[in-house]
Design a protein that fits this description.
- The structure is a single chain.
- The chain is an all-alpha fold and about 350 residues long.
- It is about 70% helix and about 0% strand.
Length: about 350
Amino acid sequence: MAATGTANGKSLRAANAAPWDRAVRYWLYAVAGLVLAMITVGGATRLTDSGLSITEWQPILGAIPPLTDAHWQEAFTKYKEIPEYHLVNKGMSLDAFKAIYWWEWSHRFLGRIIGLAFALPLAVFWYLGALRPGYLPKFAGVLALGGLQGVIGWYMVKSGLFDRVDVSQYRLALHLTVAFLILALVVWLALEHAVPHEARASSRVTATSLPAVIVGFIFLQVVLGAFVASLKGGLVYNTWPTMNGALIPYDLMTLEPWYHNPFENPVMAQFNHRLVAYAVVLLVAFEAWRRFASRAAGEVRVSAALLTAGVLGQAALGIWTLLEAVPLGLGIAHQTCAAILLVIAVRHLHVVSRGA
């Protein structure tokens, strides 16, 4: 009887949550849009060298920007105490400081908005019984990951305040990867709410399936792209398809010990980023060929075609960005489109997992 009662309770909760699925899905898509905007603003913050302009971490009071001339002078004085000012921006004007300050403030403020946009509706949906059975821990996990991302962001900024003029490439890679992970998880949860709850039993997702491998390679490419960005690897060898006439540049392994090169040599960072880009293109091309050759369901073929178009577009954009030595607009577009490509790949994985 107890087991029957439990089953009936789950059925009632599922029935109660079903009418809310569309509202939950739209909420998640809105959050995903905010995370995408966060990734875009983060790219602009990095490309404008604005990330170290705010030298303190105040989760609550930091939401208020300087409002008076005295407050601006105080913030500028604190910035003048870090190495970046003395070694890179010595003598910059207050107006120039304000320009970089607003980028970093906007990035942090958007992070706060995302936290509220996720936490408050989640609490309301939970209170109304609008969540599917078993989904509260998933949402809570994403919320916790978002809070951790704030800590990681400060951990990254802190690395550039004392002994160097930029942030650690390792911490930047961690920060960017977690942002992409949050985006992928939110999109996946939204896609789940587009499928009737009872249909989920037929889902087939394995870590070794090709769509899952493609998602994994895109994450790897994000990590490598973060190292390229932090090491300014996009400013060396601005030629394609060769690297100044060479397939393998001579200065690929100039650092000692050798294992520092993938993470600290900008030439190898760019070289690795190119290689994985080629791998992603080939994997996606094979996936598309396989789906069309097997006469897969129409939705799967459309999804594979969209993924192919996305990866080819991102590859072309990456080459263009490299050839132009990473101007601000192209650099921002490349990072934003990487996030969009991840969303397309996650959607394709979800479509395939449903056996559509």
